[in-house]
């Protein structure tokens, strides 16, 4: 037959076991700090292990710059432009003096009728206060990867087409 009552001594020993079996806050903080240091040291090495990451960032950063230029035109009520220099692999847009495109990424473009200057390999992509644009396309390529940033002339929307889908 089992006892109906638990003695105080048995209760205390089971409480001590429960308290002693866990980790202290200090131990947890030390482990978290070590994990943070290891992650901080490993991230720069991991970044170089993914060569396509620069390409992907370049495509999305340029698309973002085009979208910000369109938003600046709408909010200011004035035409705003993004200028792209193929020779120097840089672009400029409202609020940012210069942004680089990483080395090894090839650029080709078809700007709107007014914005393309093939002589000095520069293009200007204009966005108007109503959100529309002069239109155009920017092709970025690296190795066997190709992305086209298509700027719709009527709506000014920017679309990224990877591997030239639909072109």
From TrEMBL:
Keywords: Membrane, Transmembrane, Transmembrane helix
InterPro entries (alphabetical): N_methyl_site, Pilin-like
Transmembrane segments: 21-43
Domain of life: Bacteria
A Pfam family matched in the record: N_methyl
Protein name: General secretion pathway protein GspH
Phylogenetic lineage: Bacteria, Pseudomonadati, Pseudomonadota, Alphaproteobacteria, Iodidimonadales
Gene: gspH
């Amino acid at each position: 037959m089992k006892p109906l009552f638990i003695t105080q001594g048995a209760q205390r020993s089971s409480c001590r076991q429960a308290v002693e079996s866990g980790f202290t806050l200090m131990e947890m903080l030390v482990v978290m700090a070590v994990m943070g240091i290891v992650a901080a040291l490993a991230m720069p090495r991991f970044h170089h292990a993914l060569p396509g990451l620069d390409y992907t960032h370049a495509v999305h950063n340029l698309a973002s710059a085009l979208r910000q230029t369109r938003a600046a035109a709408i909010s200011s009520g004035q035409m705003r432009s993004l200028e792209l220099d193929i020779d120097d692999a840089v672009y400029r847009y409202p609020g940012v003096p210069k942004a680089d495109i990483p080395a090894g990424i090839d650029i080709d473009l078809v700007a709107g009728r007014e914005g393309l200057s093939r002589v000095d390999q520069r293009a200007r992509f204009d966005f108007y206060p109503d959100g529309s644009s002069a239109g155009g396309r920017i092709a970025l390529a690296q190795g066997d990867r190709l992305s086209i940033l298509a700027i719709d002339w009527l709506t000014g929307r920017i679309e990224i087409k990877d591997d030239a889908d639909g072109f």
